[in-house]
Amino acid sequence: MQPPFDFKQLSKAWQQQPTQPLATDLRAAKRQQNYQRWQYWAELTAAGLLLIMGSSQLFGERTLLDMFAALFLFAGAISIVLTSVSLHRPLLNYSDWSSQGLLQFRLKKCRTSVCYLRYNQYSCFALLLFVITLWGLAWWQPAQVPNILLQVYSFLVLPGCAIGWWLFGRKRQQAKKQLAHLELLYTEFQESE
After folding, report:
1. CA distance 161 to 163
2. Is residue 90 part of a domain?
3. Cα 73 to Cα 57: distance, rounded to the nearest angstrom
4. What are the TM regions of this chain, as residue ranges (predicted)?
5. Which residues lie below 8 Å from residue 103, measured CB to CB, with a gap of 6+?
């Protein structure tokens, strides 16, 4: 005996119903977008400060340490600007707040988070290279590098960098899991249309 209705058709009809995002979802997405905007401008301000600090290293005595510090500050400013523009900018003016658009925004936000956490890990690695270079410079020309600078970078900054590398790695793994889940949801949403 045949059931009075087809479950496959019922399932397909149910999945194709038009849905409107909840007001709480929209508020959360707008909040995330505002946070991205704040983070974008804060990073551009930090890059500007790094450029000013790097420029100030070029005036005065111009020791090898000053030139080296200016190079690292300029490289840091350029990488911040490039990363900020490529990661945050696409989310700042996002305007499709339909159900599919909201899901797509969250997917883009999660991809951005994975890339941003990887960038932070690279920043920790760059700081490690800076400390190693400081030690090399101190070994090559001991009078150029003050001991207090070596101690601060070796005993405070370097352990903080190691902890940061580990924490960013953990958060990145969590974000990758969330990204896989969101990609699956997005694929299911696309197939249901």
Report:
1. 5
2. yes
3. 9
4. 40-59, 65-87, 122-142, 148-168
5. 182, 185, 186, 189
Supply the pLDDT for residue 122.
Answer: 92
Q: Distance (Å, rounded) from C-alpha 124 to C-alpha 120? A: 6
Condensed to tens digits (0 to 9), the pLDDT of residues 26-70 reads: 788 788 888 889 989 999 999 999 899 888 888 877 788 888 888
pLDDT at 78: 94
**CA–CA dist 121, 127 (Å, integer):** 10
Q: What is the DSSP string of 148-192?
A: HHHHHIIIIIHHHHHHHHHHHHHHHHHHHHHHHHHHHHHHHHHHH
Q: Which residues, 6+ apart, have CB-to-CB distance to 128 below 8 Å?
A: 158, 161
- pLDDT tens per residue, range 130-140: 888 888 888 88
CA distance 2 to 143: 92
Distance CA 8, CA 2 (A): 14
Domain count for the chain: 1
Task: State the pTM of this model.
Answer: 0.73
The residue assigned the tokens 């991205």 is 36
- Residue range 108-117: average pLDDT? 91
Is 81 inside any structural domain?
Answer: yes
Measured CA to CA, the distance from residue 52 to residue 3 in angstroms comes to 75
* 145 neighbors 137 (Cβ within 8 angstroms): yes
**Other CB atoms within 10 A of residue 191 CB:** 8
The answer as to whether 1 is a domain residue is no
Q: Which domain holds residue 131?
A: 23-192
